[in-house]
Design a protein that fits this description.
The complex is a heterodimer of chains A (about 260) and B (about 240). Chain A is mainly α. Chain A has a single domain, classed as Orthogonal Bundle (MetI-like fold), CATH 1.10.3720. Chain A has helices at about 5-25, 40-45, 50-85, 85-100, 105-115, 120-140, 145-155, 160-195, 200-210, 215-245. In chain A, helix 8 runs parallel beside helix 9. Chain B contains 8 helices and 9 strands. Chain B has helices spanning about 50-55, 85-90, 95, 100-115, 130-145, 160-175, 190-195, 225-240, and strands at about 5-15, 25-35, 40, 65-70, 70-75, 150-155, 180-185, 200, 210-215. Chain B folds into 2 domains: about 1-70 and about 150-245, 3-Layer(aba) Sandwich (Rossmann fold); about 80-145. Chain B is globular, with a radius of gyration of 18 Å. Chain B starts with a strand and ends in a 5-residue tail after the last helix. Classes of the chains: A mainly alpha (about 260), B alpha/beta (about 240).
């Protein structure tokens, strides 16, 4: 694919989708208050720009902090599960089960425990983002070359030093993959978390706009959220290239 | 220092055969390597050569017989360099795992790079090195482990034929400079004759020593030397693969 096609193709798809949406909203059977047209959303994006920006700052903070918490907790948890087969067998199923808990179910509990501040939002975002990070990091740890570990043992490396020199660096690409998946789900998590109880944030804006029949504003908030997720994903991809450049090279056996 | 003594060793992998039966990797295997001696072990694939090296390195325990060896370090067929670390840090890994600081390990590894033709590549990552250079870095790492016995497991098998010949010459010179007790496992009979003081021929599984050839030729040796060719024929004959 040449350079022009790489830019043109995604733009064409985006324009086609927007065009279809515009036509459907203008001429279709659905009321504009239920499905606003793209031009209305675009209008809102501009008119409400300072409102959207202020709320984005709140939500972006929650998402970034939530992913950081999930990343740290997920990494530590993956290492613990990697080190102990017993722990892995006994808690991995629980980890999977934790992903099936609908957030509204535990929302009242979180509010009772943590109030209406940022803490319950962080818990929700971290709870959702934690899982992909644990799974991908654990997989990366499991893929560490057995020969490598054997070699470290003949160099008289202790368990800790094998961890420090071989397994921890090898787990980093897994952490990045997990974090990239987590970005998308963290945004959904943030919206849910703000619905539980909040006075600001883009999720809050969506929730308060709908009963006020400001559907276009709600859609504008979602557009901002998507753009934020894409930006975060791109930044993570960039960071990944800088921090673990070796992860995307062909494996052992390069003979030149 | 006693070099390496392997006496009547048996090693069985229970339930690891194709139908869940036992695999007898070694039975009645004996081997001696005097301190400073280079012993090559040749045999067909799957005759338990790698198992033998892991026993010598203490990575496995024999099911019968005894293994007594000075501390040994394994150099596997694949270089197993850490892709995220520089060549220098890979070489220094043996020191790092003993608690030496990164800076100090680098200082100790640098002179080896000059000696072994790796000068200028200290900061290259493994992906930027050729197969032969990677293997040389792996060899420096093996030497820096500071152990009297080197267990080399087909160290050049993954290289192309030309690089392999070049690396055999290089290893012969390196070992002349840095004498160690060496047990070199290979399926390349020529490599064995060119490098070793003695060649031990193993039977197919269950592996045991079936023949032993003293090489006793002056160094440096070339694969085309008449004496090397003659010994190679004898070793092949012992392997049951006479030309």
């Amino acid at each position: 694919m040449n350079r022009a096609a790489r830019v043109v193709a995604p733009l064409a798809i985006l324009l086609a989708l927007l065009g279809a949406w515009e036509l459907y909203a203008d001429f279709g059977p659905v009321d504009r208050l239920i499905l606003p047209a793209p031009h209305e959303v675009a209008q809102r994006l501009w008119l409400d720009r300072s409102l959207l920006w202020d709320n984005l700052k709140v939500t972006a903070g929650e998402i970034l902090l939530g992913i950081l918490v999930a990343g740290a907790a997920g990494f530590v948890c993956a290492i613990a599960l990697h080190l102990s087969l017993t722990l892995r067998r006994s808690t991995y199923p629980l980890l999977v089960a934790s992903q099936t808990i609908p957030i509204p179910l535990i929302a009242p509990l979180l509010v009772v425990w943590l109030g209406f501040g940022i803490a319950p939002k962080l818990v929700v975002i971290a709870l959702i983002s934690f899982f992909p990070i644990v799974v991908t990091t654990l997989d990366a740890l499991a893929r560490v070359d057995a020969g490598q570990v054997k070699l470290m043992r003949t160099l008289d490396a202790s368990r800790w030093r094998i961890m420090r020199h071989v397994e921890l660096p090898a787990a980093l690409p897994g952490l990045f993959s997990g974090a990239k998946v987590a970005v998308a789900v963290a945004v959904i998590g943030a919206v849910f978390a703000e619905w539980i109880g909040s006075s600001s944030g883009l999720g809050n804006l969506v929730q308060t706009s709908i009963p006020n029949l400001a559907t276009a504003r709600a859609y504008a908030a979602v557009v901002i959220l998507s753009a934020f997720a894409i930006t975060l994903f791109a930044l993570l991809t960039l960071a990944e290239r800088l921090v673990v450049p070796w992860a995307h090279e062909p494996p052992q056996g390069r003979n030149r | 220092m006693d070099g390496v003594r392997v006496d009547g060793v048996e090693r069985i992998f229970r339930g690891r055969g194709r139908r869940g039966d036992d695999v007898v990797a070694l039975r009645g295997m004996s081997l001696r390597a005097a301190p400073g001696e280079i012993v090559a072990v040749v045999g067909a694939s799957g005759c338990g050569k790698s198992t033998l090296l892991e026993l010598i390195c203490g990575l496995q325990a024999p099911d019968a017989g005894t293994v007594a060896a000075d501390p040994a370090v394994l150099m596997p067929q694949r270089d197993l360099l850490l892709p995220w670390a520089s060549a220098l840090d890979n070489a220094g890994l043996a020191l790092r795992v003993r608690g030496v600081s990164a800076a100090k390990a680098r200082v100790e590894a640098v002179p080896w790079f000059e000696r072994f033709g790796l000068g200028g590549f200290e900061h290259a990552r493994p992906a930027e090195l050729s197969g032969g250079m990677r293997q040389r870095v792996a060899f420096v790492r093996t030497l820096l482990a500071g152990k009297p016995v080197l267990a080399l497991d087909e160290p050049f098998a993954a290289l192309d034929a030309l690089t392999r010949q070049e690396m055999q010459g290089w290893l012969a010179r390196a070992l002349a400079q840095e004498p160690r007790t060496v047990v070199l496992v290979t399926h390349d009979v020529e490599e064995a004759v060119v490098l070793a003081d003695r060649v031990v021929v193993m039977s197919p599984r269950p592996g045991r020593a079936v023949a032993e050839l003293e090489v006793g030729l002056p160094r440096p040796r070339h694969r085309t030397d008449a004496a090397v060719v003659a010994l190679r024929e004898r070793a092949l004959e012992a392997l049951g693969m006479a030309a």
